[in-house]
Amino acid sequence: MPLSPRIKTALPGPQARKLVKLDQKYVSPSYTRSYPLVVKAAQGLWVTDADDNLFLDFTAGIAVNASGHCHPTVVEAIKTQADKLLHMSGTDFYYTPQIELAQKLAQIAPGRNRRKVYFGNSGAEAVEAAFKLARWHTQRELNLAFFGAFHGRTMGALSLTASKTVQKKHYNPFVPGITHIPYAYCYRCAYNLTYPDCDLYCLSWVEDTLFRTTIPPEEVAAIFVEPIQGEGGYIVPPPEFHQKLYAIAQKYDILYVADEVQAGMGRTGKMFAMEHFGVRPHIMALAKGIASGMPLGALVADAKIMNWEAGSHASTFGGNPISCQAALATIALLQDGLMDNARIQGERLMTGLRELQKTHACIGDVRGKGLMVAVELVTDREKRTPDRDGRNKLIDLAFKQGFLLLGCGENSIRFCPALTVSAAEIDTGLTIFEEILRARAKK
Ligand SMILES: Cc1ncc(COP(=O)(O)O)c(C=O)c1O
Question: What's the mean pLDDT in 298-306?
């Protein structure tokens, strides 16, 4: 295992520059590249770029490579399956990996109810399927979702999303009937209240105001909620938030749809992030970490709820046999120690970042669970003034030092390394982060 990044060229290096130019000529300009990293190969937590520079990766390909880059067990499972069957479409035919993965997901989903699983290829497809299933099952037209939420970019998922206007600009009209409400982002409370004195007013407001004035609750199909908001800024709500919201949902027979796409699959130290909050959602959307990098989305729902008829929803590629085998191998690794490692290394990371917060006033908040950790950058800690520019500069400086990070929310940096990360790699990341905080402070 390498001990530290190795940057041999100016960044981007000559090969990377050439490839970026070619990309700019042929690839969609809608992608959001924070810095010009051109990846050639990767192993574990370490990424080699086109010029053979070596980077420490705390992005895991946007929280996807749960078992690290190219984990040998996952690669072996992929190769073995590739020799047998690449595709047959689980929509029209049966094959073992899809059935086995559905059984596995049904077994590990929290609670005792029998579950059924629908397969797609991405997070957005899992959310889209949840949206359709909720309508199909309840025959209700309205839905609630949260400000700050990111649920994907297809039209249904995008209609539920309320993260950044650039994601929605020029795409109106959206699917009607969705109302966004404030999430418990207690560092920046929408109602200017303070937890716990607020008694979670953001939730009582739903029942006392929203349901009394504008939204008849008996017409609401589902509440779509991330257990911990991901793209919105790695926002961890108070411990009782989900139970209180779930109680409201139960009262009006509204389905509780947990979007576990980013927070799920062991990243927070439990298989599903909702387990931290003691809530058993009716429907869970899964993707990202589920197959360590192979494209796969899954919807896990109570069998009683997943009662749509044949032909009502399907996908040609969903539940691809190779992706399913990669997922089965990933889940076995998660259960075999990676989930525990996420908890242990996540605590080490949070402790280190909290130490840095003591000496660096630009760190307004440190938050997270397991290996879903963020720091929020501010220009004034008292006033909590967001420092978006400073955040972007830090991410760029980190890249130049061979440390890969991503932003989230308006002014936060997320740390979401693979669940295989070692204590030494956490310490290397913290050391580099401290260096760049110092370098930035001097400017
Ligand atoms: C919580 C959540 N839901 C859905 C999605 C959409 O996933 P995908 O990009 O695979 O469509 C994301 C992606 O970041 C996400 O974080």
Answer: 98
Nearest-atom index, ligand 1, CA of 229: 1
Single-letter residue type at 146: F
Percent of the chain with pLDDT over 70: 100
Cross-strand partners of 39 = 49
Q: Where do the DSSP E strands lie in 238-355? A: 255-259, 283-286, 297-302
Which of the 8 DSSP states describes residue 270?
Answer: S
- Give the tens place of pLDDT for each residue, 12-62: 999 999 999 999 999 999 999 999 999 999 999 999 999 999 999 999 999
How far apart are alpha carbons 246 and 285 in whole angstroms? 17
| Tokens found for residue 256 | 């509780």
In a domain? residue 339: no
CB-based contacts of 139, cutoff 8 Å, min separation 6: none
Q: What is the pTM assigned to this prediction?
A: 0.98
Number of structural domains found in the chain: 1
User: Is the distance from the beta carbon of residue 287 to the nearest atom of ligand 1 less than 6 Å?
Assistant: yes
Confirm whether 273 is domain-assigned.
yes
* Rounded Cα–Cα distance for residues 60 and 240 (Å): 30
Q: Which amino acid is at 403?
A: F
- Distance (Å) from CA 261 to ligand 1 centroid: 6
Residue 55, classed as helix, strand or coil, is strand
Give a yes or no: residue 77 inside a domain.
yes
Name the pLDDT band for 442 (thresholds 50, 70, 90). confident
Whether omega before 12 lies within 30 degrees of 0, making that bond cis, reads yes
Give the residue carrying structure tokens 């790699």: 425
Range of the domain at 298: 73-334
How far, in Å, from the CA of 151 to the mean position of ligand 1? 5
C-alpha to C-alpha distance for 261 and 191, rounded to whole angstroms: 28
- Assess if residue 6 is contained within a domain: no
User: Model confidence over 168-184: pLDDT tens digits?
Assistant: 999 999 999 999 999 99
Q: Which residue has the tokens 């905080």?
A: 437
Cα–Cα dist 419/406, whole Å? 17
Closest atom of ligand 1 relative to the 154 alpha carbon: 11
Task: Report in angstroms the alpha-carbon separations of 316 from 93, 156, 324.
Answer: 10, 19, 14
- C-alpha 384/C-alpha 104 separation (Å) is 44
Q: Coil, strand, or helix at residue 256?
A: strand
In degrees rounded to 5, what are phi and psi of residue 338?
-70, -35
Please determine, for residue 1, whether its predicted confidence score (pLDDT) is greater than 80: no
289 CB near ligand 1 (under 6 Å): no
Domain holding 173: CATH number? 3.40.640.10
- Strand-pairing partners, residue 54, are 6, 48
DSSP state of 324: H
